[in-house]
């Protein structure tokens, strides 16, 4: 049978697609811009007709109904492998379960979840009947499709036909097909602050022409990314392709290979990734430290929240309160450590200022109770504040304390040193 005939045979409405979900199903659905929003919302509308349906994704970029009220719990239970803005916003509703995983091991997490259903937003079919997972879906959809009994796709003309590995699914291999066109959800960009620009100015001279880069999102990351305009012949190996990388590629700064687990940001970014210039591959392959380390002069740059005086780095919680997720930060720190000439920078402002204007040091002797360690001190290379770079790699504890005190805010340096002596971390 021709694939076009099979497409028509499998075609159903969005509402009918949602009705294919049964009690006790375990659903993996594409993250962020790869989510079939209309199928999921239709499923929310019929939640009382199912029990014990578990839904898992990497990050929600839409305020789904099942996130917003405790009445959905027990019918549609939400799990996320990355704790993003919408999950935080609706966490108190009681239907957000945070899965703790490194992105390099996301395939293992999905296999343990063992989905019975894969839901994906896909492109229009190409001439051969392949539908593409888009800038975000390549990250993990393929492993879910391998495991699922039912593969339900929502065809969306706005989903780009991306290039890559394990980046598409054929009409022959899906169970049902529905259609709904919608613009892909975008992730707004943070404008760099003056402090972000100061920290960026310290890091930028450390990046050589010809380096391979990994940069995250946020004001600081954007200050660094857009600040690389005067570099030459950069390449990209990153979990997330960003708008700053689109800018650098269009400027001719990035001339080498561009490999990524997903693209997330603006409409311009989605169009760029869809043009075939970026090679996408599953995130659990891209983020393997051994793969990252194959790139000479690899540079990893990520933000963090706080650091203790021995170099333990915290990036995902504030005390017991979860703020973000493990993600791929440690993957890239370790990957940089395996790279010939590799460097990893973990960046943060030297102080936090609360609503009353009170300052507290982000470099501290004792971390708050419940604080999650994202990067063990034995992996940390460079910690950066607006006061400089602390080189901690393979250093003794006393050398670490000295280096971190030197980049702490001047108002806290003497206090930190005295606390370190009192705690017995260093001698007088």
What does it look like?
With 428 residues, the protein is an alpha/beta fold. The protein folds into two domains: 3-179, Glutaconate Coenzyme A-transferase (3-Layer(aba) Sandwich); 194-423, Acetyl-CoA hydrolase/transferase C-terminal domain (Glutaconate Coenzyme A-transferase), CATH 3.40.1080. Helix content is 29%, strand content 24%. The protein is built from 17 helices and 25 strands. A nine-stranded mixed beta sheet has the order 8-14-13-12-11-15-20-24-25. A seven-stranded parallel beta sheet has the order 4-3-2-1-5-7-10, sandwiched between helices. Strands 17-16-23 form a three-stranded mixed beta sheet, with no helix packed on it. Helix 12 links the parallel strand 13 and strand 14 (279-280). Helix 16 (397-407) packs antiparallel against helix 17. The chain is globular. The mean pLDDT is 96.
Key traits:
single chain, 428 residues, alpha/beta, Glutaconate Coenzyme A-transferase, nine-stranded mixed sheet, 25 strands, 24% strand, globular
CATH architectural arrangement of the largest domain: 3-Layer(aba) Sandwich
End-to-end gap: 81 Å
Strand content: 15-25%
Number of strands: 25
CATH class of the largest domain: Alpha Beta
- Assign the CATH topology of the largest domain: Glutaconate Coenzyme A-transferase
Helix content class:
25-40%
Low-confidence spans: pLDDT under 50, at least 5 residues?
none
Give the helix tally: 17
Largest sheet features: 9 strands, mixed
- What spatial form do the alpha-carbon principal axes imply? globular
